[in-house]
Each structure stands twice: as C-alpha cells, then as structure tokens.
C-alpha cells in the first residue's frame, strides 16, 4: 500500500510510530492525526493519515500557520489506496518544539476537525516578514517538468522562506484545482527549495496554460514583501 519512496524518506522509528497511529481503533472516518513533541529530526513531528483531497494541503498548512507554528520540513506522500501519509516538522514562535501538552493536544484536535470539515479552504493569515529575511530576499522561480511515467507534473519552487510560505502555496494550489500527490519541502537558511508532484482535479498533468497561471500566481503572491 505504501510506495517505496515512503520507506526511503522515513526512519524505522518513524515507520513504527506511523503504523501504531494508523492501527488505532478509535480513529474516525479514516482520519488519523498524532503529534510527536520531540522528534529525532529536531522539532515536533505532526503526522496525518487521511484521504487525499484537493483542499488537504491548504487546510493543513493554513491551520498550522494560524497557530503561529513554522513548518521546517514536510514529507507528503500518497499511498496506493489514495491516502495522504504526511509528516510536518514544526517549531513554535520561539524556534522551539511544541512541548506544551495543552498546545499539542489543541493542535491535534483542531487538525482533526479541519480534516473532517466539509467547508472549503481555510483563510490564510499574513504574518509580518522579519527584517533578517527581507534582507536576504530570493526572487521566486517556478519550473515545471512532466513525469510521464507517473502521469503527473513536477513543480519546482525556489523562493524566500517567509513565515506562512506553505499556507500561501496551499491556498493557490486549492484555488487553481491542483492536487498534491507528493512533495519534498526543504529550507536552506532564508531560501526555500520545494518540489511538488501534482495533477489537476481530473488526475491529469498540468497543460501549458495551467502551468503559466500557476507560475504567475505563485510569483505574484510570494514576491510581495511587507
């Protein structure tokens, strides 16, 4: 059920943790959410196992941003059964793991509610960009490649790692009907280098017009500075 890429990108301990969460009998409607306050990768690890939808990435990243948390790493994978196997590495506003038990439980509860809700996208909040990041602004670049073997489009995004970056990306993807099948999110200082493997709502690759619209929307949104 899980693709080979899943096992290449997770440690043995992470695979065991995920299996324990997925097999819990009290999980409802196929949605599993759990938080490891202190992960072996540093920061807190938020694990989601839920059916894939075009609004999943938007709802997840927007809620994390609303709670004032920062995503430093994201591993987004889709199982062969159409379930998202997503792990986000998080830090709080002080750059520390989410160790407070109440805050951790609140995050898990709100995330479950968001994933089960029938509402549309979650509004993205705008956080002030720190001066140190503005000083190292990286102009946004978006590249596309077609993965014909997997029938999906690869989107490469290079931009400044602003607060709430992924929530803005998630909102744009949702508005343009783009579904994320897989993603590799990485941050190098003030620079974000993210790769998304996507399709449209019909499961097709993005055509030239869709690519142009997506590139323009991402550049317009991400190159704005306060």
Automatic annotation (TrEMBL):
InterPro entries assigned to the protein according to its UniProt record, in alphabetical order: ACT-like_dom_sf (IPR045865), ACT_dom (IPR002912), UTase/UR (IPR010043)
Membrane-spanning segments: none
Keyword vocabulary terms for this entry: Hydrolase
Domain ACT: from-to ranges: 45-131, 154-226
Pfam family membership, one: ACT
Molecular function via GO: [protein-PII] uridylyltransferase activity; hydrolase activity
Keyword Hydrolase applies: yes
Record keyword NAD present: no
HAMAP family linked: PII_uridylyl_transf (MF_00277)
Protein's UniProt name: ACT domain-containing protein
Organism for this UniProt entry: hydrothermal vent metagenome
